[in-house]
Amino acid sequence: MRQWFERHVQTMVASLGRLWQQPFAALLTILVIGIALALPACLHTLVQNVRAASGGWGHALDVSLYMKQATSLEDTRRVAVKLRKRRDVEEVTVIEADDALEEFRKSSGFGEALDALESNPLPHALVVRPDAAFRSPEQIASLTQALRELPEVDIVQLDSEWVTRFHAMLDVVRRIVLLAAGLFALGILVIVGNTIRLDIENRRDEIEVTKLVGGSNAFVRRPFLYNGVWYGLGGGLVAWLVVTVAVGLLAEPVARIAGLYGSRFELAGLRPVGAAALIGGGIALGWLGSFIAATRQLRGIEPK
Amino acid sequence: MIRFDHVFKRYPNGREALTDLTLDVGRGEMVFLTGHSGAGKSTLLKLIALIERPTRGTVLVNGQNTTAVRRSKIPAFRRQIGIVFQDHKLLMDRPVYDNVGLPLVIAGVPEKEIGKRVRAALDQVGLLGREHNRPIELSTGEQQRVGIARAVISKPALLIADEPTGNLDPELAVEIMKLFKRFNDVGVTVLIASHDVHLIERLGVRRVMIEAGRVAGGDPAPVLPSMQAI
After folding, report:
1. A302 to chain B: closest CA residue
2. Taking CB atoms and an 8 Å cutoff, what residues of chain B touch A205?
3. In angstroms, what separates the C-alpha of A237 from chain B's closest C-alpha?
């Protein structure tokens, strides 16, 4: 077991040394892989940020409940207390009918016309803010349904149609990111495979000799697999760097825009899990690409 | 050690390299295969190393029927044979040490032991101290000795060589043959293909003449290896 480990470490270092001998060629391959990984990674980061930002627009998801005219202020407050206990409700604000009328009088410009009214035509109202964890379109719909069924409630108004659409669009974009990631992954397999294929062609004599003195296919293949792993690791690191730099460059202007809209939203980079997935994905693709190419190619090289 | 039983070998291009060849080489023997180039000597050796497979007939090596050796088992099979080539087949971009140690690396021998055995093997072929040279810095005769060191490092019971002296002048050729004889003296079965009749006559070991793909003369029956020094 120790020998096996020793042997692998040796092959690993040796294959790194071999790449080092042709730094330019290796660097080109690594850069191509890095860019191919960086594109979907950047898109993914963008989608993550847009989702985080849209989470901050919680007020857009507020549900307004207009009580039936006959409902007293006490009853309205009781409903508010009851609603606050729901898991999917973050906050309930009570708007008294008189306050609402006053507000309306000030903002609408109908002041005098309103004065002509004998009594306040407005009902008491509640503004319900859904909890942050319950803001998917389905969850909002089920909350609204529950609110509609309250006997004291007359009208439930939800101005979230656009949020639903937005989420639907975001879903489409996320699928596009997945699709792009798949295509780029395929591209990386081809790039690594082709690089390894050329590498093998260049070392044909050496492979023949090794097979002549009893080297198995697995033995001859091993250094090429490590080459692939190094390419993938390098590419993953390049991609991570690209995303980090891009986020770094955009963070300040985005924060400024957010500030103008009174939001404290900050652009987030890749989380450690995301970075690990990116680099791990690079390594896996590098390994797989070289595995496919080397397995195919080495079978055809036999001593004569 | 080696038995060819009515072996035929026809290459895909239709050339008949071996036709009904029968040959026996006993354990511990040293045998020369002679004959013109194209007579089938190289093909015979390739069948032993499983570089080629017989079209018909059976080849037994060290008690194993080569026909029964599966493709995936060929590497393990080759590891029990030392092979020396006319063109050495060394890795020119690697030092002598890596070349000689390669069979042990393949066999998974620990690094420490590889160092010891590489030096021992180089000592046997008279190249101790040259392990850090590249083959290109050595003469042809020295390169061939590196090839021999690589062939014997895993202490195979069978050593085969295809025209090992083909590129050497007569004096160097004698040196190389003496080297083979020394391995034979410690019990290694040695089978050498060579068209250098004069050299072989001086060695006084068993000869088998191959002509047109079959045994055509020499000493067809196994004899005890000559023990006299050359």
Report:
1. B51
2. 91
3. 31
Interchain contact A187–B (C-beta under 8 A): no
Which two three-digit tokens encode residue A171? 């879903």
The string of pLDDT tens digits covering residues B130-143 is 989 999 999 988 99
Is the predicted pLDDT of residue A1 greater than 90, yes or no?
A: no
**Structure confidence at residue B150 (pLDDT):** 95
User: Which of A213, A220, A299 is the best residue to mutate to test the B interface, defined by the most B CB atoms within 10 Å of its own CB?
Assistant: A213
Q: Is B9 on the interface with A (CB under 8 A)?
A: no
Give the pLDDT band of residue B198 (cuts 50, 70, 90): confident
Residue A40's nearest CA partner among A222, A186, A158, A155 is A186
State both tokens at B167: 């590129």
- Does A157 lie at the interface with B, CB-CB under 8 angstroms? no
With contacts defined as CB-CB under 8 Å, which chain A residues touch B106? 210, 213-216, 219
In the block, which residue shows the tokens 């729901």? A86
Strand B30-34 to B189-193 pairing? parallel
Share of chain A above pLDDT 70, in %: 97
Token digits of residue B31: 């045998």
- Using the beta-carbon criterion (under 8 Å), do A216 and B78 form an inter-chain contact? no
Q: Which of A46, A17, A40, A19 is nearest to A188 (CA)?
A: A40
- Up-side HSE of residue B41: CA atoms within 13 Å toward CB? 28
- How do the domains of chain B map onto residue ranges? 1-80+156-213, 90-155
CA atoms within 13 A on the CB side of B113: 10
User: Which fold, B1-80+156-213?
Assistant: Rossmann fold (3.40.50)
Alpha-carbon span A156 to A159, nearest angstrom: 10
ipTM comes to 0.87
The answer, yes or no, to whether residue B227 has pLDDT greater than 50, is no
Average pLDDT over residues A246-267: 84
Residue A168 has pLDDT above 90, yes or no: no
